[in-house]
Design brief:
This protein folds into two domains: 167 residues, Aconitase, domain 4 (Alpha-Beta Barrel); 31 residues, no CATH class. Helix 4 links the parallel strand 3 and strand 4. With 206 residues, it is α/β, with parallel strands linked by helices. The protein contains eight helices and seven strands, in the order βααβαβαβαβββααα. A seven-stranded mixed sheet has the order 4-3-2-1-5-6-7.
Length: 206
Amino acid sequence: MTPQRLTVIKGRGIVVRGNDIDTDRIVPARYLREITFARMGEYAFYDERFDAQGRRKAHPFNAPRFQGATILIVNENFGCGSSREHAPQALMRWGIRAMVGESFADIFSGNCGMLGMPNLLLPKPEILRLMDFVEGNPEAEIEVDVEKRAVRYDGVEVPAQMNESIREALLQGTWDMTSLMLEAKDKIREVASRLPYMKNFAEKSV
């Protein structure tokens, strides 16, 4: 596996409005007992999407017109609350590949970066304009340009901001630690073979 360098992410948008949407709303705490992240996409915004009987409620993640969307547009302080990695995992496994918002909680944004899911920042007026556009044009393509720090849609390019260390990791491919370790497995084996407490490591697969 070669580390993936992320420069531009394209896709249709989906809007979730509201400030201070915390990680417990993104994925309810009772689903943290899952042993793996494999089913997390099913639980994204679960309590806002379904009632106690499992019936669907009105929510963008349930709306047919937004199915297949990959760019999530949000408001202020998205991902606040606990530092659970399950929240970005749920969004990614639902299908989200990038997010654009007014602001993101720091730990949440860092967790997104480790998954290769950039968070770009736009001023409130630009976010509201983008939200209105996406809701009125759910089939339109949105471009999230990590390299140039910009968001493009409807023939316009809007300058954006993002955490610089996360940006550099995405551009260089160093965000994907699993791929980096697999790429360096021969060197890892060689170093491990010289360590007394790891003498059998070189004979095992990484």
